[in-house]
Specification:
Elements: H1 2-40, H2 43-48, H3 54-57, H4 65-68, H5 73-86, H6 88-91, H7 124-133, H8 146-159, H9 171-175, H10 198-211
Helix pairs in contact: 5-8, 7-8
The structure holds heme C (HEC).
């Protein structure tokens, strides 16, 4: 009896082993199906591919200097906010140059209600140049985009300088402006002509040294 059963036990092992192997393989196949489908649909490829091109994420703003340098109601409205947030602290809410942050400066912030002694020009591009480069203790404003810069200039012209003969920009400076979508920075020539003459500047410095306070220019 015992001897008769021995081969039977042996053969059941031979049947069980291949079945187990096939079973394990089937479980493996089932488990990897989602991964294979994902690969076909670009799951892994998507992960490995470079990020989508910028234009697919957000449309890049195209700035047109020649268009923006012409005042409009929308730009003046935008400029109202830009001025309150960035300029009023020094130049004062009324543009008189008497803001609290400006009161401690040796050279006082410009009073926009006068055309006397502008250093870089009261014209649109002259002021743009000032926002780009700064002037004395006034910082440059790289964080303002071209639209915000022109907007605040139009606001200052319309709000504080409306009764003044604001100088126009030269054809040469306008012609040298970057093409639409081009650079943020501009190159202007004419501001040099409106710079304070050297002899005047020296007299001014002597007067300031005598008085201990900045003289009226
Ligand atoms: C930290 C104080 C401060 C802030 C903020 C400031 N300014 Fe000025 N600004 C000055 C001072 C000071 C002067 C005078 C500099 C000089 O004459 O040397 C000046 C001068 C100017 C001038 C005259 C340039 C010229 O040709 O004489 C313009 C235009 C001007 N600021 C525009 C602005 C605008 C627009 C903003 C806001 C975006 C602004 N400023 C923010 C301090 C400031």
């Amino acid at each position: 009896m015992h001897n008769e059963n021995a081969p039977k036990e042996k053969s059941s092992i031979f049947i069980f082993l291949p079945l187990a192997v096939v079973g394990v393989y089937l479980v493996y196949l089932t488990a990897t199906i989602p991964f294979k489908i994902g690969m076909k649909e670009g799951g892994v490829e998507k992960l490995l591919s470079p990020p989508p091109a910028p234009e697919a994420v957000a449309e890049e703003k195209v700035y047109d200097h020649r268009k923006l340098m012409k005042p409009s109601e929308d730009l003046v409205a935008l400029g109202t906010k830009v001025f309150a947030n960035n300029c009023a602290s020094c130049h004062g809410a009324e543009g008189l140059g008497n803001g609290t942050a400006g009161s401690k400066l040796a050279v006082k912030p410009r009073n926009f209600h006068s055309l006397d002694n502008w250093k870089q020009g009261a014209s649109t591009l002259g002021m743009y140049h000032t926002l780009e480069k700064g002037l004395g203790s006034m910082p440059a404003f790289p964080a303002l985009d071209p639209e915000q810069r022109y907007a605040v200039i139009h606001y200052i012209h319309a709000e504080f300088m409306k009764d003044l003969a604001i100088p126009a920009d030269s054809e040469k400076d306008i012609a040298a402006l970057p093409q639409p979508g081009g650079a943020v920075s501009i190159k202007i020539d004419s501001y040099k002509e409106t710079r304070v003459p050297v002899d005047f500047a020296i007299r001014q410095m002597l007067r300031e040294a005598e008085n201990g306070t900045p003289g009226k220019m």
